[in-house]
Amino acid sequence: GPAAYAYVLEAEDGTVLATHSETIGVATNNVAEYSALIAGLEKAVELCVGELEVISDSELMVKQMRGEYKVKNEALRELSLRASRVARDLGSVTYRAVRREHNRLADQLVNDALDATK
User: Less Cβ around it within 10 Å: N or C end of the chain?
Assistant: First the structure.
């Protein structure tokens, strides 16, 4: 169905450095998760972030980016390779999976983006 992604970049003290949300047409939730990851990584590079902890409610994406799961889907493989290339421009990137309620702001931004297309 219709998909959107969002990211929130926060400093260690919780200060919001950047947010972005965007609709991406018809796509799977996994494509949307990777789209958010790539856009967030690109913004972190632009802001000269040296150390980044990616917090996502997509356990699949987190485990794939950590190398714990193979990326079997061709479309996701391309996105994960692209994310890895962008991540190399940052000093250190770690990945942590959380439940959706710990990602409230990003979740709200996605819902707002989707509502705006109705």
Answer: C
The pLDDT score that the predictor gives to residue 63 is: 98
- Residue 64's φ and ψ, nearest 5 degrees, are -65, -45
* CATH number for the domain harbouring residue 52: 3.30.420.10
Whether residue 16 is predicted with pLDDT greater than 80 in this model: the reply is yes
| Kind of pairing between the strands at 92-97 and 51-56 | parallel
Residue 116: CB atoms within 10 Å: 10
Nearest one of 33, 20, 27, 31 to 3, comparing CA atoms: 27
Contact in structure between 18 and 42 (CB atoms under 8 Å): no
> pTM to 2 decimals?
0.91
Distance between CA atoms of 106 and 47, rounded to whole angstroms?
Answer: 19
